[in-house]
């Protein structure tokens, strides 16, 4: 059971249903989802161009000895010593299908000062739950390092950025992060782990609506029917179901610079083989480290177009990339390191599908480096001109994978964790430079005690952001995407 739909959700569902009927009645793949890009190869091309340009600038600076890393996302904002004075600059740094995710850009700063999650129906101001359910765009930051133990799933509203930079932020417990029929969400520099199923209770999803939620799956981040989503520099592990799942017609997603460890079914993209709207799913998976203790689904895809570029796959037990229902897989300049098991060397797996059917699927490998006997089985137009545009500017070879993924996961954490998670206590363990000082914005506080070591912000003024319908555009114009 799900929340009774709000008017916005009803409108979105009508759009999705209409789009599905267009596809079915037309007998061919048309634009089936809002914000589905008409030319996904062009998006892959732009990612390659961005990586090449960033890598060239890094080499010109001194071959990696300076601030630049060749990673176009990080190099966009991180070399500015005053980045914390302009956090919303991050929204301009996305790449791939989720490049248009605005998050809370243009909105007020909301500082989370209370790590508790005592009341999921009437969350106190100052808590993360109170921040994410608001209707207006918000850029959400944190007053200190904190462990947020959720009582139930955290339902995130549209136009929100959860920005953990400057502190060591952990989200764990029951339900974890849910993005359902929303748009323009950025989740950055957050640890998400040990998420368990929960539900059968009332949960608030907006200031004006609370509804009954059935039992959740225990995903780390669950994305349903949503678009323009960017997950960057997160560390995910030890959840009951998937670490990240995107289903039910979600599209316009980028998952980048993240670190995945200690999990079985890592990432699911697509609801089921019969769910036709997922043919419009478009996902970029870039600069991630798939590390210790992983088994399968990095990702497991249904339908859609999945661009897997410049990732480091250092461990799997069954396979790395799997799929069914004819997804397009465009694998470029990754490093695949196979396990010692002689029966698990293949990177790819066609799930529950006869070879006579999957030979026509477009699964392509270009510039990938295979280590320890790893091999990728291409199919369909994998070597044909169908990928000509994406191939014309190939991303930098996997020889630079160490450089491109050196900061994967939450900043300041190692590439591979020891078994178990080190939880932050009253200290700022793992804290990196840069904080929230100097901001005018929303600062809420409840009566709960916090471990904040920074003096509270004095609200001598609020930056009032006036926005119009044109400022709330939910996608980036294609002209901007092509000229990034």
UniProtKB/TrEMBL annotation:
Residues 145-342 form the Pectate lyase domain. Pathway: Glycan metabolism; pectin degradation; 2-dehydro-3-deoxy-D-gluconate from pectin: step 2/5. One of its GO terms (molecular function) is pectate lyase activity. Its cofactor is Ca(2+). Residues 1-27 form the signal peptide. Keywords: Calcium, Lyase, Metal-binding, Signal. It catalyses: Eliminative cleavage of (1->4)-alpha-D-galacturonan to give oligosaccharides with 4-deoxy-alpha-D-galact-4-enuronosyl groups at their non-reducing ends. The keyword Signal applies. Its EC number is 4.2.2.2. One of its GO terms (biological process) is pectin catabolic process. It comes from the Eukaryota. Binds 1 Ca(2+) ion. Required for its activity. Belongs to the polysaccharide lyase 1 family. This is Pectate lyase. It comes from Kalanchoe fedtschenkoi. The lineage of its organism: Eukaryota, Viridiplantae, Streptophyta, Embryophyta, Tracheophyta.
